Amino acid sequence: MLSFMMLQFMSGCGAGGNVSSDCDTVAFVAQKNSDSISFPISKGGTGVAKAKVVLMVPSQYRDTAETAKLQHMLAAWLTSSDTIVSDGNLASICVAMLLSRFDTGEVYEIDDVNSDFEVLDNDRLSVDMNVDVAPCFNAQSLLSVCRTSTTRYNNEEPSTEHTFYNVNLATMKRITLDDIFREEALPALNNLLKQQLVVGAGAKDVNDMLELGYFNLDNLTANNNFKITSEGLTWVYLPLEIACFRVGETQISLSYDELADFFVATNNPLNSITHATDR
Q1: Is the pLDDT of residue 11 over 70?
Q2: Chain-centroid distance, C-alpha 277
Q3: How far apart are the first and last CA of the chain?
Q4: pLDDT tens digits, residue range 73-100?
Q5: How far is Cα 69 from Cα 264, in angstroms, rounded to an integer?
Q6: For 265, how many CA atoms within 13 A lie in the half-sphere containing its CB?
Q7: For residue 26, how far is the Cα from the chain centroid?
């Protein structure tokens, strides 16, 4: 079964095709698509995979050229490719990507899922995959987009992951750590992230965190999976990155005041929020 729907959702800039705008926010249009497939599984039965994708796609920013560039940047991030995606079909491409893991024409090995999962009636496997992509910050010439991916096998608890893509709308480039922080300040930033996590968990020290399932804190470092907020930055670490699967995701937030000593001296894209001056 295949369904497709597009809805208009305007935010910030005025609506209307190719109308030029000098505002500092992006307008979006919603794309929705879903599909399902059946496939053979190693237990001799049948598996069913369902995928649903809801995307907020840039529909207007300044002019036609910059709108198209934002669309291309988002598509490249979501598909991990440089393929040009035509209007209206990005959601369907993402659905096809989700289902491609099971649509191989070969028998799907249950052990490929997880040995802890049970198969319904010993001959059924149900996989539900949902992806939602939407802006979580869209102001002051900065855009932070969140992709929420949820997967459920049979009746198990769903696994949820959040990944982020941040854009400096003034330069039309992706924002990375190198744009925000001085390289020599990163070790101190990493220590602050670790301290914040320990305090937030109510633990005494890193050793206490081991008992809570955090097995990889020695390798906890700032990465590019962060979201921009009006108050600071929030880093999200996916399951198994720094903690065991049962812990799930880990979020660590630091305010701009806490981060100020680590900022680059000039051309920091966050200056529009922090009102920081060049040092």
Answers
A1: no
A2: 30
A3: 58
A4: 999 999 987 766 655 689 999 999 999 9
A5: 27
A6: 2
A7: 18
pLDDT tens by residue, 173-204: 999 999 999 999 999 999 999 999 999 888 88
**Amino acid letter for position 26:** V
Asked whether residue 122 carries a pLDDT value surpassing 70, the answer given is no
Orientation angle between helical segments 90-100 and 64-79, nearest 10 degrees: 10
Quick check: pTM over 0.90? no
Query: In this structure, what are the phi and psi dihedrals at residue 161, rounded to the nearest 5 degrees?
Result: -130, 140
8 A C-beta contact, residue 78 and residue 95: no
Tell me the C-alpha distance between 83 and 81, whole Å.
6
Cβ proximity of 237 and 221 under 8 Å: no
Rounded Cα distance, 170 and 230, in Å: 18
Highest mean pLDDT among 43-57, 113-127, 165-179: 165-179
Strands in the chain per DSSP E: 3-9, 27-40, 46-60, 124-139, 142-153, 159-168, 173-174, 226-228, 232-237, 250-255
Q: Which amino acid is present at 233? A: L
Q: Dihedrals φ, ψ of 181, to 5°?
A: -115, 145
Do you know the residue count of the chain?
Answer: 279
Give the tokens for residue 76: 């490249």
What is the distance between the alpha carbons of residues 241 and 223, in angstroms, rounded to a whole number?
11
